[in-house]
Write a structure and sequence with these properties.
Blueprint lengths: L5 E7 L3 H16 L3 E7 L4 H8 L2 H10 L3 E4 L5 H8 L5 E5 L33 H33 L6 H6 L3 E4 L15 E3 L14 H7 L4 E5 L12 H12 L4 E6 L14 E4 L4 H5 L2
Length: 291
């Protein structure tokens, strides 16, 4: 016999990577035989949340659906308040970015900035005394920043549902699982718990198209190719100069390799005079990696 469950996915359209992550998680549940209904909201913040919470028809419809579980990202707290109000007791927190310090306090797994570097700074796992202070300071600042995001939501929820409505921290802390877009084999070692589930790479597409003639010619120039890309959010042209020089020198020292670099400012002429360094403002990354 087949047992399937019904899930509610609260998916604020915040950025492409976040949208893709929630969508991929939903697809995995559907492929396993479950049913997923998704709420797509264009404004991840207070205006849309306030409208949703006061839309009684939507609330009543969601209550009638009797979902078995739900999941959302903590970039918008509205989904978790909604889960609590309509009676969903089994829900998960998802995080579409790399492991973030401080987020894991929800799971009971402590953060140790003395030896685990944060994702917001450039430090590695071997830090000197001053670098550890720097890392700890960033962790402290993050702890001050997060309440500034959550407190307005708490005020909104209590105004809508009453002063007895639980704080958003309590709702998130009672989640069943915490799914993170992290690959433990390449992530920094850290203390974890069984509540944390690593599903890094779930949003990577398995399908691809053949690259066009221009890219095919570039890939066939040499036997070896190296692709340098940091996605759509991290811009190569904003890298420190020493990092750029390191990439340029690496290309110069390896003339038998074609280096393809996603660089957003062609007017910088970063590849000038280097035959094996190709720069482009956009790269068909998935298609190229599958070529």
């Amino acid at each position: 016999s087949l047992f399937s469950f019904r899930f509610l996915a609260y998916n604020p359209i915040f950025a492409r990577s976040h949208l893709n992550f929630i969508g991929s998680l939903s697809d995995s549940l559907i492929e396993a035989g479950h049913e997923v209904e998704m709420m797509n909201l264009r404004d991840a913040w207070h205006g849309q949340c306030n409208f949703t919470l006061y839309h009684q028809e939507i609330i009543e419809e969601l209550i009638r659906e009797k979902y078995d579980g739900a999941f959302s990202e903590p970039i918008c707290m509205c989904g978790f308040a909604l889960f609590n109000h309509i009676g969903i007791t089994n829900y998960a927190v998802t995080l579409s970015i790399a492991s973030s310090e401080g987020s894991f306090e929800t799971t009971g797994a402590p953060s140790f900035p003395s030896y685990v570097p944060g994702i917001r700074i450039y430090l590695g796992e071997k830090m000197n005394f001053f670098e550890r202070i720097h890392n700890s300071f960033n962790y402290f600042v993050l702890g001050l920043f997060v309440p500034g995001i959550r407190n307005p939501f708490d005020a909104m929820f209590k105004q809508r549902f009453g002063l007895e409505f639980p704080n958003i921290d309590n709702i998130i802390n009672n989640s069943s699982f915490f799914f993170v877009n992290s690959e433990p084999l390449i992530d920094f070692p850290k203390i974890t718990t069984h509540k944390l589930i690593d599903i890094g790479g779930i949003g990577v597409s398995s399908g691809h198209q053949k690259v066009n003639e221009t890219w095919s010619e570039i890939l066939n120039r040499r036997e070896k190719n190296v692709l340098i890309s940091f996605g759509t959010v991290a811009k190569s042209y904003l890298m420190p100069d020493q990092y750029k020089k390191s990439i340029i020198e690496t290309a110069r020292n390896n003339p038998d390799v074609t280096f393809i670099w996603k660089y957003e400012k062609p007017e910088h002429r970063i590849s000038q005079g280097i035959d094996n360094l190709v720069e482009a403002t956009w790269i068909p990354q998935n298609d190229m990696l599958c070529e």
